[in-house]
Design brief:
Chain lengths: ~100, ~500
């Protein structure tokens, strides 16, 4: 399987990373090198093998559905690049 | 006592308890060494005030006869661990200015045990790298050199700052994390000990996530005894990490008897790679001979899916990373890009992530995005997870046949020069982890210990892989190998 420039552009878009058009050929070529390496996996017979979910078979534990935390708005917002009036601020989302 | 920074954890602990030295003296000695070693670029955020405050508190506890396991011992913390009020950037520009409002469970346990934090250590960005060349802080530099050649060498990665700092005696020990070999490979490159415990032993809470099904924290120390002491402090169940194991943590140091009579040590034939340097081949054979002399039985074993571990890793780790790193959006923490007139929220995300993530991180996030995307999920991601099942089964079969531990080289080469791999394709760099990555995929404990020098005078390490949850036995086998190998070389000070 080979990745062309338009696929590379689509992947960048899905990953929400801005890639300039002139960087796409090199990016596509790097993807192809890595995917070429990954394609060795096609040599392995995986018929009837379960995909691993977790190295230790375990059920994730559940706790009581109660409030254990909260009332720390200042701390939550302390590292925000733009916080106003107790909220995270972002560019306009809805027209 | 002079050169207190050169002590290991056990030696310093014993000296503290005898009253021969104070934690403040130890800590000041390390702080002086750190200030003198900016050329290594190992410590990237220094915290002398916190260090001295904790050292004084530790001295008071020791005096009062209430000294927990690591009381008064100065250590460095990898930048991947969130430390309250202290910059924690995971080596990334995107977390510029981030000061967590909380402390990771592991660094909290170390603090509770009296350890003194000297500062934060350099690392590859988001722990993605094998040479510490992807860090926003610039390269960490190894204290080792090739003879009289003054070319700068890599301390390995991703825990490169931790490796450099411990090898150069800037601290007594350091924390590391290991997703594909990031404790064991740098430990081998600089001639120190590093152990990655069984997946689930150390809480991942408060450690910046890379690939959650593979990430584990562990200690990087000057010897095996120190590794046992520090690992015990770092381990333990934590309700805040749903994959944290509810198992009692043994006294690992008490397991260090050095008696390995009758232990069965496996030598996996698949780790004998084409083009492996003769020195590493010899080191491996010598290691096996030492374990045999100590009374162990050496057996040839096969781990047939070894060849597929790296390709499986380079599907699974980027897939998990693409999901984990989705949180860096320039909204809740870290750095937001400058926006142009008319930019909306999508442009904000795209510019923030393009500016904030380095090249290798961007590449891995996009590979992960691709292998998880509609139409490719089965072909790549599910296939890799099935291969992972087979890799784990290889190990289970060997342990079921009575093998106690597996001996392999830690790395396929000694340390290389910073910048020497720049022109190579990314896969060449990934090959650094060829002997370590199987252990993460199978969730097993693995330890790297220094065992010799190559002809350039650079350290080489051997790796021992143990049964799940049996770090005590693994540490004891490593202890026996360490005693036999008698590695004492140190880098000459040039910095």
């Amino acid at each position: 399987m080979s990745i062309d420039q338009s696929t590379a552009a689509k992947v960048a878009k899905l990953a929400r990373i801005k890639v300039e058009d002139d960087a796409l050929p090199a990016l596509a070529s790097e993807f192809n090198t890595i995917l070429g390496f990954i394609e060795q996996l096609n040599e392995v017979d995986v018929d009837g093998v379960e995909p691993m979910v977790s190295v230790e078979p375990m059920r994730l534990k559940r706790r009581e559905d109660v409030v254990t935390d909260g009332n720390q708005q200042d701390k939550v917002l302390a590292n925000a690049p733009d916080a106003r009036e107790g909220f995270f601020a972002v560019p306009k989302v809805v027209e | 006592m002079s050169d207190l920074n050169k002590l290991g954890l056990a030696e310093a602990r014993d000296a503290l308890r005898k009253g021969d030295v104070t934690s403040v003296e130890l800590t000041e000695s390390c702080l002086t060494a750190i200030d003198d070693a900016d050329a290594l670029n190992a410590f990237v955020h220094k915290t002398p005030e916190i260090a001295l405050e904790r050292a004084k508190a530790a001295d008071a506890r020791i005096k009062a006869g209430d000294a927990p396991s690591m009381c008064g011992l100065p250590i460095g913390i990898k930048d991947l661990f969130c430390t309250k009020g202290v910059p924690s950037q995971a080596g990334s520009k995107i977390l510029d200015g981030f000061k967590p409002e909380y402390e990771s469970t592991v660094s909290q346990q170390l603090a509770d045990a009296g350890a003194v934090m000297l500062g934060k250590l350099n690392m590859d960005e988001f722990a993605m790298g094998s040479s510490n060349e992807t860090s926003t802080y610039g390269n960490a530099v190894s204290p080792w050199r090739r003879g009289n050649d003054d070319a700068q060498l890599t301390p390995g990665g991703s825990s490169g700052g931790s490796a450099s700092a411990v090898a150069a005696d800037l601290c007594l020990a350091a924390t590391g994390t290991d997703t594909g070999g990031s404790i064991r490979q740098p430990a081998a490159f600089v001639g120190i000990t590093g152990i990655k415990p069984t997946y689930g032993r150390c809480s991942r809470w408060g450690i910046v996530a890379f690939a959650s099904s593979l990430d584990q924290a562990g200690p990087m120390t000057k010897n095996v005894r120190d590794a046992a002491i520090m690992l015990e402090t770092m381990c333990g169940h934590d309700a805040k990490d749903s994959t944290s194991a509810e198992l009692a943590v043994p006294n690992f140091e008490a397991k260090l008897t050095g008696d390995i009579k009758g232990k069965k040590i496996g030598i996996p034939k698949e780790y004998r790679m084409e083009g492996m340097p003769a020195e590493i081949e010899k080191l491996w054979a010598d290691g096996a001979a030492m374990l045999k002399d100590a009374g162990a039985e050496i057996v040839d074993i096969s781990l047939p899916h070894t060849k597929y571990a790296l390709p499986a890793y380079y599907v699974i780790a980027p897939a998990e990373a693409s999901s984990n790193l989705a949180r860096y959006d320039g909204v809740r923490y870290g750095r937001r890009a400058q926006m142009a007139q008319g930019d909306g929220i999508t442009e904000m995300y795209e510019k923030t992530r393009a500016e904030g993530f380095g090249h290798e991180v961007q590449r891995r996030v996009m590979i992960g995005t691709y292998v998880l995307s509609a139409g490719f999920y089965d072909a790549y991601y599910n296939r890799a997870r099935k291969v992972r099942t087979l890799i784990k089964k290889d190990f289970e079969d060997v342990f079921a046949a009575g093998v106690d531990a597996i001996l392999t080289p830690a790395t396929p080469s000694a340390s290389f020069g910073l910048g020497e791999m720049t022109e190579a394709d990314p896969v060449q760099m990934y090959l650094n982890d060829v002997f370590t990555v199987t252990v993460n995929l199978a969730g097993l404990p693995g330890i790297s210990i220094p065992a010799g020098l190559d002809k350039q005078g650079l350290p080489l390490g051997l790796q021992l892989i143990g049964r799940p949850w049996d770090e005590g036995d693994l540490l004891n086998t490593a202890y026996a190998l360490e005693s036999a190998a008698g590695f004492v070389a140190k880098p000459g000070k040039w910095w």
